[in-house]
Amino acid sequence: MVNMDYHWMPFTENKAFKADPQLIVKADGVHYWDDKGNAILDGSSGLFTTPAGHCRPEITEAVSRQLATLDYTPHFLRASPASFELAEALSQLTPNGLDRIFFTNSGSESVETAIKIVYAYWHAKGQGNRQRLVSRERAYHGVNLGGVALSGMVKNREIFGNNGPSVVHMRHTWSETQRFEGGQPREGVELADDLLRAIDNYGAGSIGACFVEPIAGSTGVLVPPKGYLQRLRQICDAHGILLVFDEVITGFGRTGQPFASDTFGVTPDIITLAKALTNGAQPMGAVAVKTEIYDTIIDAAASGAPEFFHGYTYSAHPAATAAALATLKLYRDDGLFERAQSLAPLFQEAMMSLKDLEIITDVRGFGLLAGFDLAPEQRPGKRGFELQKDLFEAGLHIKTTGDAGIVAPAFISSPDEIDQMVSILRKTLKRY
Ligand code: PMP
User: Fold this and answer.
1) 245 CB near ligand 1 (under 6 Å)
2) What is the CA(334)–ligand 1 centre distance, in A?
């Protein structure tokens, strides 16, 4: 019996968890095992972290070899050569021009790092006034104070959101007309003009960057309307505002291409990454930055401005670096992004088949990422919480958020396993 009186769990109703704990002791491929020996199908790739499947020997062996050779080096004083190799491999994968890579340990740290890069860039250009940021309702950009301010999740901001950077929120992109539409919504491109409203209200000269998730993930998978991201890019270009894509969920093949930037054909100035960078086997994040941004900050430092004083004890940790190098090789050698692309139509169709259930009020998605809404009970979020527990009992792990469910299978899932996921969903949802 595990004693639960000491650990303060993250993002969890601690008391409810203790009353009915769900404990995972093993993982392999697309399955977890709980402490009672039950196999559970992993319908969320962990937490969007593990597209190549759990416990890949290629990754675990690389990490253990690394730990036996060099376990730690303080990266800002004594770097390991592998970190440069990883940066080069990543820059070959990121969209053209985003060729400088800063390493972090999580998505939240990537977001904070990106905010600081934005500030440092404008400072270096002599436009230090551009401190205001624009983001979106129903966005999730992690839990650190800058990310909480950017996020459009009211609950997360209630207590912690008042002391971060000054942020203007655009509207989110979901609307009634999109219910069960599938793929990219046809309507809603004009919502990008909310950025123009922010510019009209505050002046472009006060705005440093616009942060968006290309697909809002954690708040229920909101797919951008056709032309929306292009329009944001045009407005940013016209007003000299940096465009940042938070690809912590969408990065590394989730939409069928290496990045959602590739899938939607829009190149931002900065991309934040984490999760699938190491297939979830080690904590690591990264920020990919346009060369011009890096050059501006570094050149200014060379002529007397402060250096970019930012970094972490564990930046480019050797074990995480080894995991990431092995993961990128696996993605390439096994053609996993192509596999995600070829599985996507089958997966989206299977998810859409749930629309006949009365409790389901919307299904939407793109690539191997889908969200569905449950008709809420009196207390919003109650059904979603119960569903996630009931699904686990029925042998399926997925993430829920409020009354929305999010499904994100591993790229190695077989069509049969996708069918199994959807049939467990159907069976469980029918009882509601
Ligand atoms: N940004 C986005 C878009 C995310 O989805 C997440 C995590 N779900 C984060 C940032 C924060 O990442 P982490 O939990 O690794 O700090």
Assistant:
1) no
2) 26
**366 Cα–ligand 1 center, Å:** 19
Establish whether residue 86 lines the binding site of ligand 1, counting it when its CB lies within 6 angstroms of any ligand atom. Answer: no
**Ligand 1 within 6 A of 140 CB?**
yes
ipTM of the complex: 0.99
Would you state the structure tokens that stand for residue 112, as one six-digit string?
A: 């904070």
DSSP state of 286: E
Structure tokens at 232: 């944001």
**Residues 370, 196: Cα–Cα separation, whole Å:** 30
d(CA 385, CA 397) in angstroms, rounded, equals 12
Q: Which CATH number fits domain 61-333: 3.90.180.10, 3.30.70.3400, 3.90.550.10, 3.40.640.10?
A: 3.40.640.10
252-274: pLDDT as tens digits: 999 999 999 999 999 999 999 99
Per the CB < 8 A criterion, the answer to whether 258 and 93 are in contact is: yes
145 Cα: distance to centroid of ligand 1 (angstroms): 13
From the list 111, 47, 94, the residue with the least C-alpha distance to 290 is 94
Residue 189, both tokens: 């491109």
